[in-house]
Amino acid sequence: MKRSMAHLKNMYRLTVSETEKDSVIHTPGLSYESIDRDDLLHQQEYLPPTLLDETGRTIFDYAQLTSDRLTFVASSEVISEKAVYDTSVPKSPLDVLYQLGYVGKSSLSTVASIVVPSTGQAILRNINHLVGMDKTSRRPKPLPDWWREKHGGSAILKNPLIVPRLQRPTDAPQYTAKVAWMHTDNYNHTNYTTYVDYCINALHYAIEKGCMGAVNKDVVKRGIKSMRNTYIGESLENDELTVWVWASDQDDRTVHFDVQKLGQSIFQSTFVYHDE
Known about the structure:
The chain is mainly β and 276 residues long. It has helices at residues 5-11, 62-65, 145-151, 194-208, 217-220; strands at 13-16, 22-27, 69-80, 94-103, 107-116, 121-134, 174-178, 224-231, 240-247, 254-261, 264-273.
């Protein structure tokens, strides 16, 4: 989502490496809203910063790359160390390191790592796989040659982030969510991070109803170790969504989600919680 440089200058101190292969944002740390009622950090997902300075430069020439296309998140992954939930590990200030992940024909991924600057410890890593779409046809649009030549060599991942589709059991409990205006982005679609909020609400609802077996409040309070998401469709303001949630039959730490609109899956996710 777009942010004005005037606000960014008051919020963050932005720097870019001399090679311009990565970018580090120095932040004051987590906001109050980042912590939930169980003192757990909401899972964070990070797209490349829109602006690096007053000249309009963007990391990976992102603004120039996306000026003639729409971009959508196709899949994402978040890996959280236990230090994320350890109150003895300082959460202020924090650095966010951005790198280019994978470069495909019409898609790319970004890698964001949260680092504690006082120790250099990376406590969270987020990969977002983005697909560029033609504004008219809404079909994938190949990345331009100039961009590949300039940035392709700095990619740190050899493969795209592919999240397999889930098969929902017939007896999975369901939860209903309605898309509000505050849940939408610049395209007037539901913001991709909001689906995770719907899933978390659905999980707590199912636990309260006694539908999640060994996955209980104590498991949730350990914090999420990993989260893998796949974005299949779209939803808009006032749409009513059904969120299906079920526990893995392999262990008591894994939970699956299937978000549907009008009977069609538009988002799926798998959470894996930390061990005790």
